[in-house]
Amino acid sequence: MATESVSALPTPVEESQKASEYLACFLNKSLHIHTNDGRMFVGQLKCTDNERNVILSMTYEYRQPSESDIKFAAAKHEKSGNTGNVKVDMKKRFVGLVVVPGQYITKIELDG
């Protein structure tokens, strides 16, 4: 039976340092942060904390189109005589420096 040496396990300080180094490689990189209300924020990572709050700079907020926008696009699509699916873009606005509360974040992606 193999046993692991206690000294082979990383200490909490080592784990914390490793996590900090990992997060540091994302500083100033563009992230896509999805929230549980359907919004997406795209901006540069500036900071995070133990509660998973994220601060982004140069940020754009994307929202799902409203029902009236969808109906308008569908009517315009029908008038043009096109068949097939109607595509409606998300609404976009510049919001600058934002704090995205960690409790609402559902997904984080690195902008490729």
UniProtKB/TrEMBL annotation:
<dbReference type="InterPro" id="IPR001163">
    <property type="entry name" value="Sm_dom_euk/arc"/>
</dbReference>
<dbReference type="InterPro" id="IPR034110">
    <property type="entry name" value="LSMD1_Sm"/>
</dbReference>
<dbReference type="GO" id="GO:0031417">
    <property type="term" value="C:NatC complex"/>
</dbReference>
<feature type="domain" description="Sm">
    <location>
        <begin position="21"/>
        <end position="110"/>
    </location>
</feature>
<dbReference type="InterPro" id="IPR050914">
    <property type="entry name" value="snRNP_SmB/NAA38-like"/>
</dbReference>
<protein>
    <recommendedName>
        <fullName>Sm domain-containing protein</fullName>
    </recommendedName>
</protein>
<dbReference type="InterPro" id="IPR010920">
    <property type="entry name" value="LSM_dom_sf"/>
</dbReference>
<dbReference type="Pfam" id="PF01423">
    <property type="entry name" value="LSM"/>
</dbReference>
